[in-house]
Structures are given as C-alpha cells and as structure tokens.
C-alpha cells in the first residue's frame, strides 16, 4: 500500500537517505581504526562501530522502502469533503476535561506529535478519520476510553 506524502516531506526523505549513505564511509573508517587496536573479541570500539553500521544500514533500507512506496500528493490535490480526511486540520474538545486541541491529520511518515501532526494510524487519528463536525469520537487510551467532540474541520 502506498504512503501519501507531501512533496516537501518526500524531498526531506531523499535528503536523509543521502546523509545516511554518506555516513557509510565514516563508519567504515571507524571500523578500520578499531580493528587496528588488536583482539576483536574484547574491542568495544570495534563492536560499537559495527552496531552503528548495522543501525545505519537498517535505516537506509527502511527509508528506501518508504521512498519506493510513497505517493506524492499536495494537500491542495486531496479531495474536498466535510469529513476528516488526510490533510485535514481538526479542532476537537476533550469531553472529560473540556480542553480544546487542533491536529493536522497526516500520513504515518509525517506524524510528529510535537508539531500537532497525527497519523491516521494513531488511535486518535483513526477515531477522527471520517468524522464530521459535531460528531463525538472515542478510542481506547492508556487511561481508558477517551471521547472527543469534533468542533471544526479545515
């Protein structure tokens, strides 16, 4: 299944991939230097560098897969609807506390709770997806069932 991403995020993904590929040389050099220190069985610098190499290669593979499955879609090209969809900004109110929040519904790859961007794969994003203004949605959170009222969609 394709992941929808904005053109900006697609470019960031490609830039990050190039950064990770560029680190390969530095990591390889670190491994070579650590090898020169002798016995590899008890060489913590060597093992740390090998671990870093493994993590870097895993990130490269993951990012290559994400780029390969990405479908670039500008927010303006998303179909207009009166329900919450990908790209919607949703204003909600927690029914237990009365606290109001606003979130941008984005693909998983762009989610960043610190920027109030939640994915449709998150519990709240999944509950909101397809909801309309005035509706109440609920989902299971660690603290129990949480209910929100949709105040606005833009």
Provide key terms for this protein.
25% strand; 154 residues; elongated; 5-stranded mixed β-sheet; Helix Hairpins; 40% helix; 2 domains; Chitinase A, domain 3
Question: How would you describe this structure to a colleague?
Answer:
The mean pLDDT is 88. Strands 5-4-3-7-6 form a 5-stranded mixed beta sheet. It has a two-stranded parallel sheet with strand order 1-2. The protein contains 3 helices and 7 strands. It has 2 domains: 70 residues, Transcription elongation factor, GreA/GreB, N-terminal domain (Helix Hairpins); 76 residues, Transcription elongation factor, GreA/GreB, C-terminal domain (Chitinase A, domain 3, Roll), CATH 3.10.50. Strand 6 and strand 7 form a beta hairpin. It is of the alpha/beta class.
């Amino acid at each position: 299944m394709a992941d929808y991403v904005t053109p900006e995020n697609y470019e960031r993904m490609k830039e990050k991939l190039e950064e990770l590929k560029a680190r390969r040389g530095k990591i390889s050099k670190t491994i070579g230097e650590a090898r020169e220190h002798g016995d590899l069985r008890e060489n913590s610098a060597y093992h740390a560098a090998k671990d870093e190499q493994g993590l870097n290669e895993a990130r490269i593979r993951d990012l290559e897969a994400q780029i390969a499955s990405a479908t670039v879609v500008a927010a303006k090209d998303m179909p207009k609807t009166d329900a919450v969809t990908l790209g919607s900004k949703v204003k909600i109110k927690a029914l237990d506390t009365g606290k109001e929040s606003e979130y941008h519904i984005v693909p998983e790859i762009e989610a960043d709770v610190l920027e109030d961007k939640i994915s449709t794969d998150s519990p709240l994003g999944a509950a909101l997806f397809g909801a309309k203004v005035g509706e109440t949605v609920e989902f299971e959170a660690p603290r129990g069932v949480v209910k929100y009222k949709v105040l606005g969609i833009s």
